[in-house]
Amino acid sequence: MNHQEKTSHRPSARRFALHGLEMVIAMLVGMVVLGTVWSWLGLSHDTAVESLVMATDMAIAMAVWMRFRGHGLPAIVEMSAAMYVPFLTLLPFYWTGALSAMDFMSAGHVLMLPAMLASMLRRRHEYGW
Q1: Domain boundary assignment for the chain
Q2: Is the pLDDT at 129 greater than 90, yes or no?
Q3: Looking at residues 37-54, what average pLDDT do you find?
Q4: Which end of the chain has fewer surrounding CB within 10 Å, N or C?
Q5: pLDDT tens digit sequence for 3-24
């Protein structure tokens, strides 16, 4: 066993951050690829529906990538929930007019990152830290 093989499974902040970046890339791929499919099908232009469909697109792509990387179902479910919780939390503010459609979508996406981080920190051993 060479030195690189010995150290490749040691916990590190770098591996943890790289894994987070991989998941953000998977989310973007899901939004682009699956979002294109939905636009061809003429999906509703309701902002609330669009936010949940977009969260689904991101969750599907991320779940596929996580499964490919060997993660278990509990980690995949938690990370997928991180796509929905921000939007579901903000929906009442959007529905009452406290948030515009743009602010709702922007805040939902921004809040996904700390939600993902919380999930990753909860299972830091699975994410290489």
Answers
A1: 12-122
A2: no
A3: 83
A4: N
A5: 344 445 666 888 888 888 998 9
Render the burial of 61-77: b for 16+ CB within 10 Å, e for the rest.
bbbebbeeeebeeebbe
Query: Hunting for tokens 């830290």 — which residue is that?
Result: 129
- 46-105 pLDDT, tens digit each: 899 999 999 999 999 999 999 999 999 999 999 999 999 999 999 999 999 999 999 999
Cβ atoms of 77 and 99 closer than 8 Å: no
For the chain, the three-class secondary structure string (H helix, E strand, C coil) is: CCHHHHHCCCCCHHHHHHHHHHHHHHHHHHHHHHHHHHHHCCCCCCHHHHHHHHHHHHHHHHHHHHHHCCCCHHHHHHHHHHHHHHHHHHHHHHHCCCCCHHHHHHHHHHHHHHHHHHHHHHCCCCCCC
- Amino acid 126 reads E
118: which residues sit within 8 A by CB, 6+ positions away? Answer: 82
